[in-house]
Amino acid sequence: MIHACFGLHDATGRYSKFTGTAMFSLFDNTKSDVTVHILHDNTLTADNRDKFSYVAGRYGQCVKFYNVEELCAAKLAEMIRLVPAVKTARVSVGAFYRLLIPQILPSEIKKCIYLDSDTLINLDIQELWEVELGDKPLAAVREMEANAYNYKKSDASKKYLLNAGLVAYEDYFNSGVLVMNLNYLRAAEELIMSGIKWRGEHPQCNCFDQDICNYLFSKNYLKLPVKFDRFICNETSQGRTQIQNVIYHCTLLTPDMNNPFKRFWMSYFMKTPWFEAKTIGRLYEEFLQNYSQLYNAMNDSLVQLSALMSGKTRAFFVSSAHVEEIKKFFFIREGEEIIIADTEESVPNLVYAMGKAQGRKVFFLLVPNFSAISDILTQIDFAPGRDFINGMDFIPGAQGVPFNPYGLIKAM
Q1: How far is CA 123 from the centre of its chain?
Q2: Exposed (0-12), middle (13-18) or buried (19+): which is 11, by Cβ within 10 Å?
Q3: Per-residue pLDDT reduced to its tens digit, 167-214
Q4: What pLDDT does 36 receive?
Q5: Bridge partners of 336?
Q6: In 311-360, where do the E strands start and end?
């Protein structure tokens, strides 16, 4: 029997769909017997509980529920007391539930696989179950491999553990997929609580459970192949489009059907009992609201632009890779100036062109680091809204619009 665990805090009742989709993909890709253990609190609704049971029953598998607020009330209260920031952070208190797995699961269970709710298991979980831990407390994928897109040496200062020299850059691991040695961790209960206390005393850490696990075990864990925890943002940044037999870590899930990995997640979600008529209705209403906000924002921008452009011509600051698409989008005419934003000389070239224009041009900055360049230009007396503007504000959809899809996902 394979044992897999999820932690669930669902304040709105709409987060369970992520756990349910991950669980569905797990069952759909294995021929082995699996018991899924869901560590939840009082936010789990009866309806969502029934849906989890339905998914397990559909595959002839087993799901068990553990209310941590009832089973570990004192310990959970102590965790929150030690790290009160978890109550208001982007991540929920559910992030701590994986630390309670050794104490909550029956003592006869010696090993388990922990999975974040935003994973998609596109391989037979038996592969991961067969990993031999030996005397290691757990197994995980290194962050530099799982999430290389967001984990560069230049970003090390954002992780206190690395900057302080407490964890080596190459040892820091992602805690979204873990194989846990429960016998080892049961004996290390006091050690784990000391790690939670340490995290509370170091609020500069930008993660919760993950920093605790790395503080305690980064020098003594089994490094897993990256196939067991691959971030889709990393796949996209590397230009990969083919779905592979791996565990995908989805993080920011949006209904972007142009992204093959998000489309793949959606194909699983649509098979779950969470995708229903009410879901489609909420999506439609949220889309109309987003469209209305976008339409109004574009109209306001166009009114401001009309006043700004009076008696002036346009110039554009854009990377060479996007010149052709920008030409089409803005209908750039012959003679309108384009400054390439690719090299160290780009900003000095922009400054020179703006000085030469003597206020007769408005420069559209079509670059992701608008704020940094705006600060430079402002310091030398060029004014936003007069001499230059953020051209990205005028680009719709996939090209950079201020369109926030979070509401769509929340509406599900």
Answers
A1: 21
A2: exposed
A3: 888 899 999 999 999 999 999 989 988 888 888 888 888 777 888 899
A4: 97
A5: none
A6: 313-318, 337-340
Beta carbons of 39 and 71 less than 8 angstroms apart: no
Residue 358: phi, psi to the nearest 5? 50, 45
Angle at 84 between CA 197 and CA 229, to 5 degrees: 75
- Two structure tokens written together for 255: 């209904």
Q: What is the pLDDT of residue 295?
A: 52
Per the confidence metrics, is the pTM higher than 0.85? no
Question: According to the model, what pLDDT value does residue 125 have?
Answer: 97
CA distance 276 to 282: 10
d(CA 125, CA 357): 63
Return the DSSP state at 93.
G
Which token pair is 124?
Answer: 């037979």
Distance CA 392, CA 297 (A): 13
DSSP 147: T
C-alpha–C-alpha distance, residues 392 and 370, integer Å: 9
- Give dist(CA 118, CA 129) in Å, integer: 19
CB burial of residue 197 (10 Å; 0-12, 13-18, 19+): middle
Low-confidence ranges of the chain (pLDDT < 50): 303, 397-412
- Helix, strand, coil percentages, rounded to 5, for the chain: 50, 15, 35
Report pLDDT for 410: 46
Indicate the DSSP class of residue 333. Answer: P
Cβ–Cβ contacts within 10 Å for residue 91, how many?
14
Structure token digits, residue 369 = 């680091």
pLDDT digits (tens, 9 = 90+) for 282-337: 555 655 565 555 555 555 555 455 555 567 888 999 988 888 888 888 788 888 89
The SS3 assignment for 162 reads helix
Q: CA-based diameter of the chain, in Å?
A: 79
Cα end-to-end distance, the chain, whole Å: 33
Could you tell me which residues are beta bridge partners of residue 173? 142
- 């619009």: which residue's tokens? 401
As given in the structure block, the two tokens for residue 60 are 């002839």
Q: Which of 359, 328, 331, 327 is nearest to 340 (CA)?
A: 327
d(CA 387, CA 309) in angstroms, rounded, equals 10
Interacting residues of 71 by C-beta distance below 8 A, sequence separation 6+: 104
pLDDT at 407: 47
Give me the residues paired with residue 332 across strands: none
